[in-house]
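A further point concerns the way the authors explain their paired sequence and structure data. An entry of this sort, consisting of the sequence and the corresponding C-alpha cells, reads as follows:
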Amino acid sequence: MLIEMRKLTKTYGEGDQLVHATQDVNLEIHEGDFIAVVGPSGSGKTTLLNLLAGLIGPTSGTIKHKAKEIQYLSMEERTAHRLENMGFIFQDYQLLPVLTASENVELPLQMKRLSQTEIDQKTKWALEQVGLGDKLNRYPRQLSGGQQQRVAIARAIAGRPSLILADEPTANLDSKTAQDIIDLFKKLNTEFKLTFVFSTHDQRLIDQVKRVLRIKDGQIQESNE
C-alpha cells in the first residue's frame, strides 16, 4: 500500500469558529492508482492534497506513506521526504521563464544532489516521455501552453516518484490539448505504474480516471464513474 489514512482530521480555528477541513478520513491509495478528487470550493479538497503532500500535518489521525507515518516528521524531514517521493504538477505550470525546458526539469533533481550525468539522463528520459525530446533548449515563451504543461509533467516524473499530485492540470487548456495531456497521464500510469492523484473540476478527466473521490464538508465518498 502506498498511502494509508486513518481517522485523519484537520481543523482550523476554535470554539464557534472551529472548521473541520477534513473529518475522520479513512483512505487507501495503492501503487498505480489513477484518482480524481472532486468537490466544491471549501469542501476540503485542497487540504486533503496538502495532507497527502506533507505540506501540513493533521490535527488528529495518521497518514502513512510507504509505511512511514509522515505526521511525526519535522518540517525539514517532510521536505526531504517530499523531494524523494513526490512530484507536483500545477495549474499554472510554474516554470521559470529564464530557464530552458531541460533546466526547468533539472531543478528538483539538482536538489537531490545527483551527479550531473544522472541528472542529464533523467531529464532527457522525462522530456522524451512527454514528447519534447527535441525541445530541450526551448524557453517557456517559445512553447505553447500544452507544451509548457508537458515540461511541468516531465519535471514531476523525472525522479520517478511514487506519488504525483496534480492541481487542476487541464484547467487552462483547450479541449484537444487537454485530451492529449489526459492521454499522456494515462500512458505514464499504464507504462510506468506512476500513481496520480488529481484535484480537478474537469469532467473530461473525471470520466477517465480509475477512482473518483468526492469530498464534501471534509468527508470522502468514493464513486465509480
The two ends are 23 Å apart (CA to CA). The chain has seven helices and ten strands. The CA atoms of residues 103 and 136 lie 8 Å apart. The mean pLDDT is 94.
